[in-house]
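My current task is to audit a protein record that another person submitted. What it holds is a sequence and that sequence's fold in token form. Thanks in advance; the entry in question is below.
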Amino acid sequence: MPHFDLPLPKLQGYRPERDEPADYDAFWDRTLAEQRAHALAPVFEEIDAGYSQLVTEDVTFAGFDGQPVKAWLLRPRHVDGPLPTVVTYIGYGGGRGLPGEWTGLPSAGYAHFVMDLRGQGSGHRTGDTADGALTGPHHGGFMTLGIGTPDTYYYRRLFVDAVHAVEAAQAHPAVDASRTIISGGSQGGGITLAVAALVQRVNDTPPIGAIVDVPFLAHMRHATEIVDTAPYSELVSYLRTRRNDVDAVFRTLSYFDGVNFAARSTMPAMFSVGLLDDVCPPSCVFAAHNHYAGPASMKVYPYNGHEQGGAFQDVEHLRFIRGLVGG
């Protein structure tokens, strides 16, 4: 597939106006304040996952409205803690999967907390967390679930889960709360952008860095206008039949757009982009990066799509983490 978006020099300077509702901060302050009552102590249960050099724990913590959310916590068995820890969020349709999918970072000496996704996990990885608040008509997937209002929208629940996941990870005695990093790709990258902005509002020891690979949920209206791929196509299909709801839908989405979160995020961040990505278009990724309020770098893969750097980007992750935590 040829390059379909702006050329790289224009992408590097692409900083579109943000569509931000007047009560954006008030909405998220209210949401987070309401959810503090549900920040219950996480439960960690060690399991035998077959990896003798790693400790694997099945985690349950309280997410949105106190609903149980699952996670994995993996760490090296014979390394003295507390350990620098990476909290990871999953791509669209996936769940926490199996422990064996997450052995890389623990093998490098870090603890790795992998959050499950409510209602997802029937796609590329299995999941174990229900969504206890399904509401309203929607078109498949999750992009339009509860989209009638910001309060009922699916990603309000998921982003609260993700903020609580940081606190759940930091509650473990083997985790160094002062050296926590958040990460994710695609949908996970969009969640990471949200957490980078929101966790600073409620956590006295916020993460010290963010890894944001090919973020989904950024510059969303623009994405629907230049690509026809899923998951953004869910919005197009929904609005094809609900012709009078266009303005209301994009008003809801403006509370969840990664570009608006980026403008409020100050921790160091590393982004990546594939210039052939027709799932999360390069201009959407650069829009978030170029609005990012903190120090941010961008790793560009000119001839890759949504897979971006793959294992090559994993090497960049380790370099970024070491630069933040030392060692």
